[in-house]
Amino acid sequence: MSTNPPIRVVLAEDQAMVRSAFVSLLDLQPDVTVVAATATGEETLAAVEEHQPDVLVTDIEMPHGSGLDVAVELARRKHPVRILIVTTFARAGYLRRALDASVAGYVLKDAPIGELMVALRRVHAGEQVIASELAVAAWGRPDPLTDRERQLLREVADGAANAEIAARLHLAEGTVRNYLSSAMAKLGARNRTEAAKAASERGWL
């Protein structure tokens, strides 16, 4: 029997049923211990700082900070935790952003549980693991958007009008229109809603 300490994991997943099921599956593994389970980006950052896990297993879409936002912030803090993203989103844009944030693994939720456990152990061992169906696609068309354009398109995707966006981000309404016009041109979109949808489908938001 191995005398190695268990892999300490923080699990981040906003859907309660999925989170509970995933915790149960991880706890069945003799070499894994779930030290915290979180539902938002803010909770996840706090849990990583409190528990200092070996691996953070996180979804992408969560309230108050996505899994990608969490990864970027942890990279900024130079935190040593290894990050494994487990998501339904097979989007090359998301994978590219994950790699830019030094994420160690990116696998899909529809993979067999055995594959997910192998990915977790490989990430903990210092390897990089990428879903095979995304490995080639990740190096396709690069994201043309600036951070500000991406921020404004997220607001559009949430249904905000230009005036609301301007007030929330302390920008002139004309400035908002200019940024959105630039994003529309880059994406070949006829309007801001179409631009937000196109960017989301490519994983650039």
Automatic annotation (TrEMBL):
One of its GO terms (molecular function) is DNA binding. GO terms for biological process: phosphorelay signal transduction system; regulation of DNA-templated transcription. This is Two-component system, NarL family, response regulator DesR. PROSITE patterns: HTH_LUXR_1, HTH_LUXR_2, RESPONSE_REGULATORY. Pfam families: GerE (PF00196), Response_reg (PF00072). Gene3D superfamilies: 3.40.50.2300. PANTHER family: TRANSCRIPTIONAL REGULATORY PROTEIN DESR, TWO-COMPONENT RESPONSE REGULATOR. InterPro entries: CheY-like_superfamily, Sig_transdc_resp-reg_C-effctor, Sig_transdc_resp-reg_receiver, Tscrpt_reg_LuxR_C, WalR-like. Signal peptide: none annotated. SUPFAM superfamilies: C-terminal effector domain of the bipartite response regulators, CheY-like.
